Amino acid sequence: MASSLFFLRATKLYHSHSRLLIVVATVSTGGGTLAYTSYADSRSIVDDVPKKKVVVLGTGWGGTSFVKNLKNSAYDVQVVSPRNYFAFTPLLPSVTCGTVEARSIVEPIRNIAKKKNVRVEFEEAECYKIDPINKKVYCRSAQNKILEGKEEFTVDYDYLVVAMGARSNTFNTPGVEENCHFLKEIEDAQRIRTTVVDCFEKASLPHLSEEHRRKLLQFVIVGGGPTGVEFAAELHDFVTEDLSKLYPSLKPLVNITLVEAGDHILNMFDKRITDFAEKKFQRDGIDVRLGAMVTKVTSKEISTKDRASGDLKSLPYGMVVWSTGIGTRPVVMEFMKQIGQTNRRALSTDEWLRVEGTNCIYALGDCATIQQRKVMEDIEAIIKKADKDNSGTLNVKELKKVINDISERYPQIEIYMKRKQFKDIVELIKSVQGNDEKQESTQIDIASFKKSLSEVDAQMKNLPATAQVAAQQGAYLADCFNRMEDCDLNPEGPLRTRKEGRHRFRPFRYKHFGQFAPLGGEQTAAQLPGDYVIYGHSTQWLWYSVYASKLVSWRTRMLVVSDWMRRFIFGRDSSRL
Amino acid sequence: MASSLFFLRATKLYHSHSRLLIVVATVSTGGGTLAYTSYADSRSIVDDVPKKKVVVLGTGWGGTSFVKNLKNSAYDVQVVSPRNYFAFTPLLPSVTCGTVEARSIVEPIRNIAKKKNVRVEFEEAECYKIDPINKKVYCRSAQNKILEGKEEFTVDYDYLVVAMGARSNTFNTPGVEENCHFLKEIEDAQRIRTTVVDCFEKASLPHLSEEHRRKLLQFVIVGGGPTGVEFAAELHDFVTEDLSKLYPSLKPLVNITLVEAGDHILNMFDKRITDFAEKKFQRDGIDVRLGAMVTKVTSKEISTKDRASGDLKSLPYGMVVWSTGIGTRPVVMEFMKQIGQTNRRALSTDEWLRVEGTNCIYALGDCATIQQRKVMEDIEAIIKKADKDNSGTLNVKELKKVINDISERYPQIEIYMKRKQFKDIVELIKSVQGNDEKQESTQIDIASFKKSLSEVDAQMKNLPATAQVAAQQGAYLADCFNRMEDCDLNPEGPLRTRKEGRHRFRPFRYKHFGQFAPLGGEQTAAQLPGDYVIYGHSTQWLWYSVYASKLVSWRTRMLVVSDWMRRFIFGRDSSRL
């Protein structure tokens, strides 16, 4: 009764304040109600200028970020993806154990798309072939049961944005595809959740030997990266905080094993974080096996080989989750073959995200990798460009004039100088030439200059396959499309080294905002830009607040926060759904 | 930023007030934290008296209500069910369209069971055979993939409670099993939700004819009972309130058709409600086809036959939901054969829920039906019992002495008298005998007495297959088990008509608390006891508050209320999950 009274009162409140709520929503989503109107308008006005058609493949971080940031009404956008929603993937490990519900971290792409002044259409279909010659993509309806006959169709494009992501990489290990769970999609997380409960229910059946129960409760995670580590931590929390209350007799039989081929888990993080994580896992009783390669997975056992000693081991398991890096999707692989990009992990693009060897095709996110141009390839052209007076020699003054453009075009120079703690290019040259003069007329010894730059290219690293990178690339590309006409007239990029004039746009630059590694028990390690490292209890709150503020929409933000609240109060649900 | 600040403050508040929260929870669940302790105690004490083993088959309304209400520690309980949770099924239609999330209406059975002083074990398995002779049930693990070899096991019982529910009844209509959705389980509701979104996504694909789009957006519901009607209403709301915003061009192509073989929808309700519902549906544009029998369902079309005219019609469809009454589960059918109950819809029990022809087996809920004993079968014995002085005649005084016991044993007498508006048995007799005397010594004409009761048995009706009935039966049976020893010594039931003494317990009596039929657009019709009928806008709030107060646990209550809130603010999610 108390509850229903409360509810009635709350709904009354809702009704009397609904205007207020709508106003708040309008302000916070950047014009929720306004957006409807403008969307309707954009549909009804007769277009006099023929619009360019942009086709976006994929609704992950890259594609969604692109669609969200595109504001130029000179384009018609068509999004093709087998998923009609965007998923906030950093919370996927939380979905595996019900800390957060699957629906709380997804947002229909149509919802994201309609909040804009640009006409965006969406097709729930899978692209299975790209035809760059006829500017066409071939698609297939994602669910083909009730759609007879017309399952396949083609879409023409003027510009194509490939943002199809990657798939899990099994490194061709036998049995992985058939017997392991992956953790890339929402459905994967839901299946893992069901399987964990299944293992506990199975192990509760009567007449089983203790050995059999132990086997069913042996959880193996392969891969000590952030996803694997976070899943191991979530699973440990789920078992100790929730399942142990419902299955008290099974608690001592549970074992969580994390298998990592490298020497440490979280090896892309600072050493302090790695140490902290390994010690935390040891205290929690999570069995971390370092330097162990998986050689085979059968339906009953997982086999590993110690990299150092060559020892072979077998472990019977209840569930294996495979989380070790990414591989190329077949359709991307096929497209790479077509355009002559063979022997690569992903679509190779230039610094403006244009796919090499194609026209009007862009690629971003996990399916792409930026091929940064090397300084040494262009060194002669650079020197020639800097030598304004065509004297055949370079002085400091001449070099200073072009250095900004050059560092923009070749960011590895800046990274190198930062690492060596040089203040500017003069110090870099000085370090090689060895003299102390800084006068602008000082002649630069070209041979030494070349030598000073020779180490620079080694600084280039591929960007990590993370949500941050893809989201920044999507936003960057949308910004380029938004200002396409302006920048055609007033190019804003760096000087061209081999031709006259400037590049139309500044090249893409990744800005690292740090990374979190939740370790369970409300502890999180965070590596922030500028080499700051924090870990421990309070960090979890930072993590919560950063993620809550980053979620796609106010809807998902509220849902995730309320899921967290629910979990605090009621724990995680273990119904087998 | 604002959101994260709010969140941090809220969590601080949570932490400083967590003690308060726990206290509130303790009071409201009737001793949440206390229950843990007593559960642990009951596990650790050494039992000196051997306990009787009660096996409960099923975790639906009947089984769960029984387990929840059983308090007598003289029993060990073992629950066997393929579902490790209890689902609050009246909200299933809401799950189909995401008004409420599936997880919000389920509660793990282990959670329900552990709050008691009785040892309750649970096995996630399906019972496939009952052996009443050896007092054994045969079970099979519900998921058999990872459990090799020992998939099957048996469980012995002293008492067996069969509460396995029913399955959907296709009336052997060809193609229904293969092509239609049902709406009995949580998974059914989830599948329907996905299929609705699928239909919209399919219909959005390019190059389809308008006819094809219309076909994909043709939703057919078969069965005009409360479930079918509520689903039609939910679907209509989902389409008009949410999907029409995301798929504006498809809105005019959607068609919802409700097919009912009878003359009216909701025919178990008052005529006023039926009228109101039919008019509301007409205004909403839901196409109600009355008197139409479904003859066949293919993968493309559903065929109907008009009962009056015999006209045959075919309707191409996108999705069909079949919701027309219940049928017997195969395992129950098999058990009925074993115990000689053939040609019946469900397990026949006596008024104490004991399965006829068995020993120590009880059945309740949708899989059972109470075989009320007829007055006319026992009339001679009743007269003999009433004739205390063995005079061979009956007077009013003698009859009055036994009438309470008789009406308790044969509730149809009371129903009959209520309907005829007789105040007591004397008026009943008077109506037949025709004299006005009420003196206690008045002799009763036995032939007339028999005649007066002859119409009574026709009043007997089977109880409806509803959650209310099953829940009341479960609570009744648990109460009997709780007081088994007491009532062995002091029987509290009515006088036995054919033997000496009294029955041990009062027979089960169903108390109808009314029924709701949500009609969409926040309108609900309600039929309350005593022939009260309400419908219209405000009723939805009554429905919400009644259901919120009835949900299994505080957890589910809070989740459902917060789901309703979410829906008010953000609408329903249409991501294809």
TrEMBL record, chains A, B:
Domain EF-hand span(s) in chain numbering: 374-409
The organism of origin for this protein: Saponaria officinalis
Designated name of the protein: NADH:ubiquinone reductase (non-electrogenic)
Cofactors that this protein relies on: FAD
Alphabetical UniProt keywords: Calcium, FAD, Flavoprotein, Membrane, Metal-binding, Mitochondrion, Mitochondrion inner membrane, NAD, NADP, Oxidoreductase, Peroxisome, Transit peptide
Pfam family, one: NDH2_C
EC assignment: 1.6.5.9
Record carries keyword Lipoprotein: no
One GO CC term, this protein: mitochondrial inner membrane
Subcellular location: Mitochondrion inner membrane; Peroxisome
Membrane topology per record: Peripheral membrane protein
GO molecular function: calcium ion binding; NADH dehydrogenase (quinone) (non-electrogenic) activity
Catalytic activity: a ubiquinone + NADH + H(+) = a ubiquinol + NAD(+); a quinone + NADH + H(+) = a quinol + NAD(+)
Family to which the UniProt record says this protein belongs: Belongs to the NADH dehydrogenase family.
